[in-house]
Structures are given as structure tokens and as C-alpha cells.
Amino acid sequence: MGVDAVTDSLRHPETKSLQQIAASLAGYDPQALPVAQAQAFIARLMPQVQAVEMLPIRSALGRVLARDIVSAIDVPAADNSAMDGYALRSADLSPAADTVLSIVGTGFAGRPFEGTVAAGQCLRIMTGAVMPAGLDTVVPQEFVKVDGERVTVPMGAVRAGDNRRLAGEDLARGAVALAAGRIVRPADLGLLASLGRAEVAVFRRLRVAFFSTGNELRSVGEPLDAGCVYDSNRYTLWGMLQRLGVEVLDLGVVRDDPAALKAVFAQAAASADAVITSGGVSVGEADHTKQVMAQLGDVLFWRIAMRPGRPMAIGRIKAGGSSSGGSSSDGSSEHAAILFGLPGNPVAVMVTFYAFVRDALLAMSGATPQPLPMLRAASTAAIRKKPGRTEYQRGSVSRAADGSWQVTLAGSQGSGVLRSMSEANGLVVLAHAAGDVAAGELVDVLPFDGLV
Ligand code: AMP
Ligand code: MG
Q1: Count of domains in the chain?
Q2: 318 alpha carbon to ligand 2 midpoint, in Å?
């Protein structure tokens, strides 16, 4: 069930240009933007996909629900037994002595007892079998003594309502079982199935184009010329995007040539909802990337108060050129894609992706934001940290002998040392205002599991 790029526009909540937004923010400093401010700015800009497709529920795993799932039935549909035993009326139980009841029949899961059960009687019942009218309690079989047609329930063996599942206790008819914006997880597939839903409405996948910039970059499979490096960013980006469940469009390595850059930006803007580039956005850049970005859209160049990953560009770009003064919110103007111009250093790419791009793409996908779980772990060594920037250091968390979490920083923390990301199992996040960390002090760690 494909959807067409042109007819399927995004809904932009914000029609002001980025420049106008920036001008309205008190204390906005693009040369030293705190991470939290950059995140808030980006969140405000994000458009959201509108198109919806129906999928068989298994195909919806990892996708974003487009509509609330309202239960059409009570689950379970009727009061039923939670145990194998004897269903009875709690009013028959004697508070001061054992109670003797006569068995009138048996109820099985899927084959209910058809008769009636009178006072002083009980029903042999299996787990999942419907409770006949008037019965409210199940005594497990191991608690009773059975003698022919008679059951003795020891005094105090059960209280009223024990071992009975109420109709609708899992999901009540008419209640929202799963809310729109939820990313479907395995438990949700089961829940949908328990409601009898075969198909579910999800937002179409977000389309994300990406490419690398830099004359020094070579792609795998090419010879490595003197002074060149293999392009690794397109691989880490591809991996991170795959994990988000978006549709990816790899546009390769683009040389530092204005015409080539313009052509690829135009292609990316026309065919994707978001465009991610790496490289070419730092202050000293001699190349044309920044110039071309500025020509093609409404773009801001930031230096973020963070380490690694200081330089970054954010904007809206259009295939046909400048999109200052708003976006395609009215649906009639040309489609604008969101641009994330990430720094070139391989670690910086990953850190800025996790810090800014991940949540932004999830919001664009229609997902309701969920905070990422953080661990508090004791640093095994002192860490130097300058107040006034957020630092993301690569570390390995493990359990200490007493069961508490501890974290050790990976060897080299250079922003070009990708091995540190590979060796680490989490990012130590040192807050903007924080200073040096003493050995043994607790720090926040964002574990990669669940993130990457
Ligand atoms: P830049 O932000 O373009 O100045 O790049 C910063 C550093 O990252 C330079 O050493 C680049 O060679 C390196 N770099 C940029 N893009 C990539 C890439 N796609 N793969 C590997 N290294 C890169
Ligand atoms: Mg470069």
C-alpha cells in the first residue's frame, strides 16, 4: 500500500521561519546554544506525517499507531475462573466451620456449564471456564476434600471473589486499549489479537535521505587514496535509522562542488521528509556545503554547547530553493523537508543523532515522545568536565559486586574515535552546568540497549 511523496504532505505545526523563531527567543545565542534549547527549538519545528495505512497486526510491530484502539468487546467477555477448582457462592461459606457443598456439574474453558447452580451447590470448574450466574468465588482444587458428589471447603480457605476474573478486567468495551502515537511492541500485538483485531491503522513510514560530504571521503569498495578516509557515517546513520523503523534513502558521498551539492539537496528535499547530512558545517569549513544549504532553504547554523558535536545546521529545505517565511502548512506550496546538518566526525554524528535527531524523527513519525530510561551509575574514576556544556562520554556500565551499577569511560574520547562508541555500551551524560566528577560519584548513563 504505497503512498505518494507529493500528495502525502507533512503537517507543519509552525509556520514562522526559523529566523523568526530565533528572533523571538530570549537569550538565543546560536554560537553557544545549550543542548536543551536546541532540543526545544527542534521540537517546535517538527512536522508530522499524515498518511495512514492499514496493516495486518504483525506487520505493525515497531510502527506508530495512527488511531486510538478502542476495545469493541470486554476482555474477558464473561466472568471466568482463574483456577482449576470449584466455583461457589461466597454467601454459602460458613465463617465458623467447614462448608459442605454438592457438585452439580463441570464447566470447561470453551464449554460452559449450561444448568443453574442453586444455594448449597457448587460447580467443578476449569481455568478459563465461564462462571455461572450467582457464583462469585473459586476454591482451588488442592484446598478441598472431595467425597463423591460432595466437596468440603475448609473454613477460611477462600474469601469472596477469590480466583475469579471479572468480565472486562483486561480491557473494558469502549475503553482506549492503545493510544494513537504508540509505537507497537510485542505485548501490543497480543493485546490487538485479544481484541480480535486483524488489521490496524499506522502512519506511513517517514522517509529519510542522507549523504556524506567531503572530498576526502571514499566509499567502501573504492581504493583509499592518499589522505583519504572511508566514509563511515553513512553506515552508522543507516544503522541508527533502521532501528527507528524509518525508510532510508542513501544518496552516497557528495563532493565539494556547488552544482553536485545543489543537485543532491534538491533530490533529497523532493523525495524525503527529512534530510541528514554529515560534514561541512563547522566554522572553518572551506567547502560549499553551508552555502548551498543556505541557498536551498531556511537554515540556521548553530554551535551547540556540547561535546562532542558542536557544529550543526537545522532547517527546512525545498527542492526548488529558498523556503524562508514558512512552510507547506497550507498543503498547496512546495513540500519542505527538515534538514539536519550534522558534524562530520564519526562520534559527533552518532551523539548529535541521539541528542537531537532521534526524538525529532520519532515526532515526525507521529510517535508520542517517551523519555529514554537513564541509569544512575557510580563512575569508577574521576572525570574532568567543564561547566557550560553538555558532555556525552562513551562508557561501559556493569554491575559492581554489591549489585549496583558502575561505569568506566572508554579509552579514547576523541570525537573521531569511533572505536570508543563500539566498545562502549552507553553514553555518560554530564549535564550542562555540572563540573568535575569525583571517583565514586553517581552519573547519568544512557544505555545503548533500547537506543541503538
Ligand atoms: P567536517 O565536519 O566536514 O569538518 O569533518 C570533520 C572530520 O570528520 C574530518 O576529519 C572528516 O574527514 C571526518 N569525516 C567527515 N565525514 C566523514 C564520514 N562520512 N566518514 C568518516 N569521517 C568523516
Ligand atoms: Mg568536511
Answers
A1: 4
A2: 23
